[in-house]
Design brief:
Blueprint lengths: L3 H15 L8 E9 L4 E9 L1 H7 L9 H9 L5 E2 H4 L7 H14 L2 E6 L2 E6 L7 E9 L5 H17 L4 E6 L4 H4 L7 E6 L2 E6 L10 E7 L4 E6 L1 H18 L15 E6 L2 E6 L4 E2 L30 H18 L1
Parallel strand pairs: 6-7, 7-8
Antiparallel strand pairs: 1-2, 2-6, 3-5, 4-5, 8-9, 10-11, 12-13, 13-14
Length: about 325
């Protein structure tokens, strides 16, 4: 059974090739290890409106942070004083001014100064490109204790309703463990590169207020309500971060410049492999503090490796190109 990190990468690759798991036809892309301040998901599938998704590309490959997203969403079509153009109270004006300067520097809006006042207008309207968010928790070895812990996480996800659907992906076929899961969560069994639906999820309601469970005591449960407007903002921020990163972002936190680093083809994707350990490794293991870390020798960058850099740069380039293809397909 693979480690959870390797399992996660394999599930992501399978989702990219096999989603949606039914007769629906939709455009989508997959991201991994993203979330909010209180919750991080293993995998997110973002279903998108094709036209809106194409228009989002005009704002560049980097994410729009919450302040910049706010300005881009409300920037007027014609020149206007920024305090008249933007809603008041959502972002302090001192941050708005700095954000307008950053947005102009990035080329996503235009600014000018008239009579000492900052005016702005948009270059293009920010599109409503996100349709659905599907959250997937990956747990290859779903034993009894793991099922109980995961059940608590999924019940919180269902109560909040930030995603449109929540799923569990596992290699375990023991149906008795599925009984621990909330009925609203779907169950996927991943075997031999294929995804098999064992339980279909119920559709959640992100457009309605949700409940954030804060603490489950033995006698009382602490919770707070989350408005639909707040959930809408959280979903937009998640979408922007996912657009920038994509699931192959693991290469940004590992050391492909190590002479022992390699990528192993597995199904529809790649998993990182360490020749020093002779096994797949996790992002936590593969770092500059690893005892086996050995930088690529300079000679490798001069002996016929593709155009620029050694194997490490080639690895980064391959994964970045695949990520770009997912954005633009």
């Amino acid at each position: 059974m693979p480690a959870e990190f390797s399992f996660e990468l394999r599930v992501c690759a399978a989702l990219e090739s096999q989603w949606p798991l039914g007769d629906r036809d939709t455009e989508f892309f997959v991201a991994r290890q993203l979330g909010t301040k209180r919750r991080r998901w293993d995998t997110l599938i973002l279903e998108v409106d094709p036209e809106g998704f194409a228009e989002r590309a005009q704002f560049g490959g980097k994410r729009l942070d919450p302040n910049l997203l706010f300005v881009c969403q409300h920037a007027p079509a014609d020149w206007q004083y920024y305090r008249d153009a933007l809603p008041e109270g959502e972002v302090p004006w001192r941050y708005v001014r700095e954000t307008i300067h950053r947005g102009a520097a990035r080329g996503v809006l235009e600014k000018r100064k008239r009579s000492g006042r900052i005016e702005l207008h948009r270059k293009q309207a920010y599109p409503d490109w996100l349709e659905r968010i599907i959250a997937v928790e990956n747990k290859p070895d779903l034993d009894a204790s793991a099922a109980r812990a995961l059940s608590d996480q999924l019940e919180r996800d269902v109560a909040l309703g930030l995603a449109d659907e929540v799923w569990v992906a596992t290699e375990s076929g023991e149906r008795v463990l599925y009984e621990e899961m909330p009925v609203e969560a779907g169950i996927l069994v991943f075997e031999d590169g294929a995804l098999d639906v064992r339980w279909h999820p119920r559709a959640l309601t992100p457009e309605q207020p949700g409940t954030r469970i804060l603490d489950r005591g033995s006698e009382v449960c602490e919770f707070e309500y989350v408005t639909a407007a707040r959930k809408s903002k959280l979903r937009a921020w998640l979408a922007e971060r996912a657009y920038e990163r994509g699931w192959r972002s693991y290469v940004d936190t590992m050391r492909p410049d190590c002479r022992h680093f390699d990528l192993k083809r597995d199904g529809d994707g790649y998993v990182p492999y360490c020749h020093a350990k002779n096994r797949e490794q996790t992002a936590g293991e593969c770092s500059g503090s690893c005892a086996e870390f050995s930088p690529e020798p300079p000679q490798w960058r001069q002996l016929g490796w593709p155009i620029e850099g050694g194997p490490g740069q080639t690895v980064k380039r391959v994964l970045d190109e695949r990520r770009e293809r997912e954005r633009g397909r």
